[in-house]
């Protein structure tokens, strides 16, 4: 059978489309393949849990914040972008703390020192919990590569957004927090 | 993953840097291709890309502002923030496309020859997009025991970003080779068909792709529809007289 170029094109195209549709159906993932129930410091995964002491002498764990919208922020007093974004974080915290929002600001205490962290908090009048990562284990668990680093976590403990570097614009913090608070309503 | 590089006191976003390099190389290859084909020189690829990027960034910021006006009312300075997270990508793409069309009309450019001239840029950008995903850890693959699986996010996984980058590179080489005489628009359509085919096949290994209610990956379904469209248009181009 001597097929014209047009017919050959039609047959090849049809074969490609049929095989393509079959491939899509065959390779559709089972629900457990996409299950991101493991804890990883990445969007779509459960945020790795931690328990740290605070500047005020308490102990806080991330797991205890389940049910709240959480912003985990890694910072140090010598970090200029951290200094730049803290006032905006404080304003957003004051606006939404009564709606179930909390900021856990983790200071790299192994580099900073308690006194440096306290002076920073006093300078900016921060009222959200300041946690001290004394041995650097939480930073390692979150594979910290830059300061600041921020993780927006929803009420189910799943990381919805990771922001590496800064400073974060206040509008960014506001919109992300509103999305976190609104998503579960 | 290599999302950030510390250069002295600066934290440089590696994925963004890769994308910028891709745009630069794509413009260079598109202009070289244009010169080699001895086609009309009225198209300045760099100018077109610059206009489109500028319009796209402005449109993306405006789109985000329209979606969240209260946030910007509370913090007006955020309008000029350098945060890329304050951009709406879909609106940005739309405004970039509109700006490109307006620029093209003003310069008297024909659509299909222009798309052909820009195809190397699209191909290189696709390669750089996947490499930037490798740097950021986005688009990660399904768990795998294959010898070439990479350790990422707590498991050994298909290196889908590398699969995608290699496929995009192969498409670039295919597009770049000296072809038999092609009709205007044919190079672009061949690129679209190959890129859609690659997407349809390789996204089967993607763990991060969103899915429809029936479990099918949205990206694969979209690629299949794009493949149909490009086949139909290619068929019309090639067999117009029949």
**In which range does the helix fraction of chain B lie?**
55-70%
Measured on Cα atoms, how large is the radius of gyration of chain A? 23 Å
Total strands of chain B: the figure is 4
Largest sheet of chain B: 2 strands, antiparallel
Oligomer: heterodimer
Shape of chain A: elongated
- Quote the beta fraction of chain B: 5-15%
Mind describing the biggest β-sheet of chain A?
A: 7 strands, mixed
Query: Biggest sheet of chain A: strands side by side, in what order?
Result: 2-1-5-4-3-6-7
Low-pLDDT parts of chain A are none
> What is the string of SSEs of chain B from the N terminus onward?
EEHHHHHEEHHH
Strand line-up of the largest beta sheet of chain B: 1-2
Q: What is the H/E order of chain A?
A: HEEEHEHHEHEEH
Tally of helical segments of chain A: 6
Strand content of chain A: 15-25%
Q: Mean pLDDT of chain B, nearest integer?
A: 89
- The number of distinct β-strands of chain A equals 7
């Amino acid at each position: 059978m001597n097929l014209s170029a047009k017919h050959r094109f039609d047959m090849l195209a049809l074969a490609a489309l049929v095989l393509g549709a079959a491939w899509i159906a065959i390779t559709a993932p089972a629900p457990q393949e996409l299950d991101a129930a493991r804890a990883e410091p990445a969007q779509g995964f459960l945020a790795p849990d931690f328990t740290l002491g605070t500047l005020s002498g308490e102990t806080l764990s991330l797991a205890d914040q389940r049910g709240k919208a959480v912003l985990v922020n890694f910072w140090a007093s010598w970090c200029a972008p951290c200094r730049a974004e803290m006032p905006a974080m404080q304003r957003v915290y004051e606006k939404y703390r009564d709606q179930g929002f909390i900021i856990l600001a983790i200071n790299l205490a192994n580099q900073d020192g308690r006194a440096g962290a306290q002076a920073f908090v006093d300078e900016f009048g921060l009222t959200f919990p300041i946690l001290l990562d004394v041995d650097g284990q939480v930073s390692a668990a979150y594979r910290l590569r830059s300061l600041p680093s921020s993780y927006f976590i929803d009420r189910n403990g799943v990381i919805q957004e990771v922001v590496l570097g800064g400073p974060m614009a206040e509008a960014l913090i506001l919109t992300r927090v509103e999305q976190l608070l609104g998503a579960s309503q | 993953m290599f999302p950030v590089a510390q250069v002295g006191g600066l934290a440089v976003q590696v994925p963004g840097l890769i994308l910028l390099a891709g745009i630069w190389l794509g413009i260079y290859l598109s202009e070289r291709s244009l010169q080699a084909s001895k086609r009309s020189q009225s198209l300045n690829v760099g100018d077109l890309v610059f206009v489109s990027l500028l319009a796209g960034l402005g449109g993306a910021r405006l789109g985000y502002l329209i979606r969240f006006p209260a946030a910007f009312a509370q913090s007006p300075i955020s309008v000029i923030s350098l945060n890329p997270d304050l951009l709406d990508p879909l609106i940005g793409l739309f405004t970039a496309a509109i700006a490109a069309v307006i620029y093209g009309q003003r310069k008297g450019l024909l659509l299909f020859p222009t798309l052909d001239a820009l195809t190397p840029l699209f191909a290189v950008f696709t390669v750089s997009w996947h490499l930037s995903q490798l740097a950021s850890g986005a688009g990660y693959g399904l768990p795998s025991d294959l010898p070439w699986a990479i350790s990422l996010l707590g498991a050994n996984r298909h290196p889908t970003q590398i699969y995608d980058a290699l496929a995009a590179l192969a498409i670039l080489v295919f597009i770049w080779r000296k072809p038999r005489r092609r009709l205007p628009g044919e190079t672009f359509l061949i690129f679209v068909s190959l890129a859609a085919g690659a997407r349809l096949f390789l996204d089967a290994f993607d763990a991060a792709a969103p899915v429809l209610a029936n479990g099918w990956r949205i990206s694969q379904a979209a690629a299949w529809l794009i493949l149909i469209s490009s086949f139909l248009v290619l068929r019309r181009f090639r067999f117009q007289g029949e």
